[in-house]
């Protein structure tokens, strides 16, 4: 038990040191990047620093696998050079048992990252996108999904139109049970339209079985209402703009993802990309464990001369290979070419199995 606590403490120290180094490096790099990106805007130094701090959690969260594998490499190289693993084996303990502490700490770090750090990343990312959008072109999201249905916004400098639909197709171009309310630039409503359906074509919405009411204090709305078998309303929206308004799944806290997926599917949209992301977040602790085991497989043996650099490079390359394999599986899952569970859980499980096979071969082979 004392040995496990010792190795666990060493790993936590190594992880904290590596995380701190990446925090400083990424902070300075991102500060330069934000300064370059908003050089032509009204953003001052304080705003650039604020944007950097808001974007930093997301960057560190993406770098978490790399931080983990470098922390494990530093740990096992230190243990091998000090012959502590040799002493562990001489005391009758298998080196594989020495991994129990670091692996447990990795699972704990991964769990905290998903449960605590992920919501922080989502909140800061959303705030970063809102601030950066306001500095660039003042465009906000045109789409919102709630329990009442789907909400869209379109307009120009003269007027704005709010659209509510009870249901839609997968890309938001065909709406069912739809309402259009048009507002002037000053904010007063001027027209309301109810229709059974609305289809988005190039530059317009085409409404079927529509009824229109003018909203004016000088008129009785129902008296001046008109009905239309087909009604065409100009629109600045497109299928791509509607789809892009969902944002990235990473901008939604993992605790809110199940409810968001239910609302998305109830509105008629495909939530496949969000389901894959949710499962990948749940598999994150196992993926970090795979990184630790890969690092151990190449750095736990006694180091001799020039082989150290080659073994460390091999561990890093294989870790990157597993990382890109996970990203490739995510793309296949997003496209529906493989099941969601396979896309999320197969890469970490395969990495753990391959690394354990290598470790067993080195220990008992």
Written overview of the protein:
Helices cover 59% and strands 18% of the residues. With 365 residues, the chain is of the alpha+beta class. The protein folds into two domains: 233 residues, no CATH class; 102 residues, Sandwich (lipopolysaccharide transport protein A fold), CATH 2.60.450. A seven-stranded antiparallel beta sheet has the order 1-2-3-4-5-6-7. Strand 1 and strand 2 form a beta hairpin. Helix 1 crosses helix 2, helix 3 runs antiparallel to helix 11 and helix 6 packs across helix 10. The longest helix is centred in the first third of the chain and has 37 residues. It is elongated and about 95 Å long. The relative contact order is 0.11.
Whole-number average pLDDT? 84
Query: What's the helix-strand series?
Result: HHHHHHEEEEEEEHHHHHH
Biggest pleated-sheet summary: 7 strands, antiparallel
Q: Which regions are unreliable across 5 or more consecutive residues at pLDDT < 50?
A: none
Counted by DSSP, the helix tally is: 12
Tell me, briefly, the overall form.
elongated
Counting DSSP E segments of at least 2 residues, the number of strands comes to 7
- Overall SS class: alpha+beta
The domain tally reads 2
Determine the N-to-C terminus distance.
Answer: 27 Å
- As laid out across the biggest beta sheet, the strand order is 1-2-3-4-5-6-7
Strand content: 15-25%
Estimate percent helicity: 55-70%
User: What is Rg?
Assistant: 27 Å
What can be said about this structure in brief?
By secondary structure, the protein is of the alpha+beta class. Helix content is 59%, strand content 18%. A seven-stranded antiparallel β-sheet has the order 1-2-3-4-5-6-7.
């Amino acid at each position: 038990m004392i040995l496990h606590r010792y190795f666990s403490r060493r790993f936590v120290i190594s992880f904290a040191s590596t995380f701190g180094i990446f925090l400083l490096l990424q902070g300075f790099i991102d500060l330069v990047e934000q300064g370059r990106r908003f050089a032509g805007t009204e953003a001052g130094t304080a705003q650039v620093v604020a944007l950097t701090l808001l974007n930093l959690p997301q960057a560190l969260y993406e770098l978490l696998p790399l931080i983990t594998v470098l922390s494990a490499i530093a740990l096992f190289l230190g243990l091998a050079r000090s012959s502590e693993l040799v002493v562990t084996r001489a005391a009758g303990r298998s080196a594989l048992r020495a991994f129990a502490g670091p692996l447990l700490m990795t699972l704990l770090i991964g769990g905290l990252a998903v449960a605590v750090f992920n919501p922080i990343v989502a909140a800061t990312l959303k705030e970063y996108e809102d601030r950066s959008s306001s500095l660039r072109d003042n465009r906000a999201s045109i789409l919102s999904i709630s329990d009442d249905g789907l909400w869209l916004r379109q307009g120009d400098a003269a007027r704005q139109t709010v659209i509510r639909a009870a249901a839609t197709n997968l890309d938001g171009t065909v709406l069912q049970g739809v309402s259009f309310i048009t507002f002037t630039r000053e904010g007063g409503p001027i027209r309301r339209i109810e229709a059974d359906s609305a289809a988005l074509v190039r530059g317009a919405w085409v409404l079927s079985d529509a009824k229109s009411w003018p909203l004016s204090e000088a008129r009785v709305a129902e008296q001046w209402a008109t009905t239309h078998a087909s009604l065409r309303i100009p629109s600045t929206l497109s299928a791509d703009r509607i789809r892009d308004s969902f944002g990235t799944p990473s901008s939604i806290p993992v605790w809110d993802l199940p409810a968001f997926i239910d609302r998305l599917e109830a509105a008629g949209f495909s939530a496949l990309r969000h389901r894959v992301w949710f499962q990948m977040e749940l598999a994150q602790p196992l993926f970090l464990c795979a990184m630790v085991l890969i690092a151990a497989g190449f750095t736990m043996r006694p180091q001799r001369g020039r082989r150290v650099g080659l073994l460390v490079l091999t561990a890093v390359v294989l870790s990157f290979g597993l990382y890109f394999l996970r990203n490739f599986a995510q793309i296949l899952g997003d496209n529906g070419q493989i099941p969601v569970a396979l896309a999320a859980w197969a890469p970490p499980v395969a990495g753990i199995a391959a690394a354990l096979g290598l470790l067993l071969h080195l220990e008992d082979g």
